Amino acid sequence: MYRTFSHASTTGTRPDFFSFFPVPDFLSMRTLGFDISDNSIKIVELIKRNGLMRLGFYAASDIPPGTIESGQIKNYTGLEKVITELQRRHKFVFVDASLPEQKAYLYTTTIEGDDDVLLRENIEFQLEENIPLTKAEAVFDFEVYKTYTKEKKVYREVTISAISRSVSESYIALLKRSGLRPVSLSIEAEAVANAVVPDGDDGAYLIIDFGKTRTGISVVNEGVTRLTSTSETGGADITKHIAEKLKVPQSEAETLKRQHGLLGVGEAHEVSSIIEGAFSNILREVDGQLRYWHSKTDDRGFRSKRVDTILICGGGALLKGVEAHLKKSLSVNVELANVWSNVAFPKNYVPEVSFEDSLGYAAAIGLALKH
Q1: What is the per-residue pLDDT for 249?
Q2: 68-107 pLDDT, tens per residue?
Q3: Running DSSP on this structure, what letter comes out for residue 20?
Q4: Over the chain, what is the mean pLDDT?
Q5: Domain 1-102+165-198+341-371, architecture per CATH
Q6: Distance CA 59, CA 85 (A)
Q7: Which of 94, 147, 261, 304 allows an S-S link to 296, with CB 3.0 to 4.6 Å?
Q8: Long-range contacts for 228-232 (Cβ within 8 Å, ≥24 apart)?
Q9: With contact defined as beta carbons under 8 Å apart, do 139 and 145 qualify?
Q10: Residue 30 phi/psi, 5° resolution?
Q11: Which pTM does this prediction carry?
């Protein structure tokens, strides 16, 4: 039976949102990272041999508009067809899949004591104080990321991820109806962090995942995703904005966006100005997250570690001038993410996917790294 209740992670590793069954060491399953967004499905297979990894295959398929809206499945039949076709072409069954971060809630708290049973009970007791769902409506996962002693008492700092039971079960039902076996589900932002933040790195990062219909923003500290938010502005919105302002077809607007980005000069400066105006929505959300994170203090009065690097991924990360624009606007170092940060490739091995294309597969790679 599939588990749809909370699954605790207290080992210090990045958690699955919840795992359905343990994988015996002797059982070698072909498990894929399976990232579902509003407009596409991306899948990645990592083949592990002798402690090293190779890229088995990667693939993507567009989802018809309106099939998923803001993380909510609207057309099961249409989505099933897309998944079935991917499965027919690539012959896979077991998947580590993503849950939409638009529907997820994430927060941190400190709980006294070192009893694991009481820890989960305390989290359940406090759940309704922190998210707009009842205990009956929610499924959650948690991770203890720090333990300390104060005045002879033990305290544990915990990050909690929660999502409505109805949303999680809708994704489970979809995958099962499509003939797939979900091994685990993870919130998309945590999957991205699993790929782009190097294991063991205790720094603070803000990650921007530029998508077609939205932009995911998250803060990761000590390898743990602490904050997430979503800007409803994505690459398609910027293209639409150009088309409306210049009164040109969508196809031409997309070409102009790719040609000039935020670096247009002369006559092209108008295009860049339009992009900058549309991009300001994302910039405000990022700035708000940075300000909020830097204003936080923990129960001991320690201020949050400052974010000194922003990592960007997703197709929109390739927009010309976006790194310089973010750096100038926010006074923070900005880098294109390395989505292979935690993949142990053999020496001199180069995966058969361009660096530019790989930026759109961060979540799928992070999911594939679960096993």
Answers
A1: 97
A2: 998 999 999 999 999 999 999 999 999 999 999 888 899 8
A3: S
A4: 89
A5: 2-Layer Sandwich (3.30)
A6: 12
A7: 304
A8: 228/101, 228/104, 228/106, 228/187, 228/189, 229/285, 229/288, 229/289, 230/101, 230/102, 231/281, 231/282, 231/285, 232/281
A9: no
A10: -85, 100
A11: 0.90
Query: Which residues neighbour 258 within 8 Å (Cβ) at sequence distance 6 or greater?
Result: 320
Mean pLDDT, residues 277-282 = 94
**Predicted confidence band at 322 (pLDDT cuts at 50, 70, 90)?**
very high
- The values of phi and psi at residue 341, to 5°, are -50, -35
Distance CA 139, CA 8 (A): 11
The 3-state secondary structure of 306-336, one letter per residue: CCCEEEEECHHHHCCCHHHHHHHHHCCEEEE
**Shared fold status for 1-102+165-198+341-371 and 200-338:** yes
- What is the DSSP secondary-structure string of 69-125? ETTEE--HHHHHHHHHHHHHHH---EEEEEE-GGGEEEEEEEEE---HHHHHHHHHH
What would the two tokens of residue 104 be?
Answer: 């997820």
